């Protein structure tokens, strides 16, 4: 073996020795002993490469031992076998229990160091994974049997078997479009029963004959969004029944919306209850929320128009500008303007501005064109100017 090859081999052996020590394959004592031997060999080779005493090499130096390690596993400890060179192979073999002795080792069978190291490391890794898996399985069995033991003990002591009730209250029974009831809550035979949610009954007191804008669809739609499906029954104020209802509930404006006591069972009732007044077991929607436009108790004054505005308010100013054309055309109209603090404003409970009041009874709100004001006014009054067309656009 030339000097270069031997040096590379020794350097490789030194690296392998270090990796084996770091992987706990050999002990520190074995590592230090082998390291000293290899470094000594490297030092000698360096001297030889420099030409020092190259011609005095002896047969003994040429026959330097070349070691090959094989792994023998005894329990959890790995012992390195030492095999002599060819000349001594048949005379003596080291015992498998012998530690790695770098000074006595002679190369006979060369096994790649990478194979030995990788095998030892892989085997060690598998051993650790196996141990962890075994510990986990043991703990799982302990927990399972402990739980089963305690459960059985409790059942034997109390005579009861653990169970989970199907429902504990009505809140556990839910189905879209249905009302749920928990039968025998928290018991073994607990069950849910469902019924169709009944529509909320609403009495609508109205007077469509004398009120051109007493439509109810908008408000009924709002009630359904708040409280679910409603069953509306409209009663005319002009009937005996209607007049009795108006008197019983103290109606001041129409339409009036009267809801039965089932409203309190609705999920969202608490959220909206402030807009209802309770009377004789019923719940009446207040006039401002309902936007009831017909003050049926007030005397009708033909050809009268009142405007409720806020000073310096943009919408109020715009409403007055659009009203000028109407007033210039309808000279017979009796016109009145009112501010928020005026008596009539307070009496009617007007809170939306601008608002118009026709004939002292029917109101409508918002900024309106001259032609819209005319159309509304002429639904309750018959004047020759009603045939004229006014501006349909806002000023």
What does this structure look like?
The protein is of the alpha+beta class and 395 residues long. It folds into four domains: 3-111, no CATH class; 163-197, no CATH class; 200-290, Glutaredoxin, CATH 3.40.30; 304-387, Glutaredoxin (3-Layer(aba) Sandwich). The chain has helices at residues 3-22, 28-49, 59-62, 113-158, 217-227, 240-249, 269-272, 287-290, 314-329, 343-348, 370-378; strands at residues 70-74, 77-81, 178-183, 191-196, 200-206, 230-236, 256-259, 276-279, 282-285, 304-308, 334-338, 355-358, 362-365. The chain has a five-stranded mixed beta sheet with strand order 6-5-7-9-8, sandwiched between helices. Residues 65-111 have low confidence and may be disordered.
Q: What letter string, H or E per element, gives the SSE order?
A: HHHEEHEEEHEHEHEEHEHEHEEH
Number of helices: 11
General form = elongated
Backbone CA Rg: 53 Å
- Total E-strand runs: 13
Give helix % range: 25-40%
Give the class from helix and strand content and strand pairing. Answer: alpha+beta
Cα separation of the termini: 113 Å
How much of the sequence lies in strands comes to 15-25%
* Main sheet: strands, sense, barrel: 5 strands, mixed
Count of the domains: 4
Mean pLDDT: 80
Oligomeric state of this protein: single chain
Low-confidence stretches: 65-111
Q: Tell me the strand order in the biggest sheet.
A: 6-5-7-9-8
Q: What's the quick description here?
A:
With 395 residues, this protein is of the alpha+beta class. 38% of the residues lie in helices and 17% in strands.
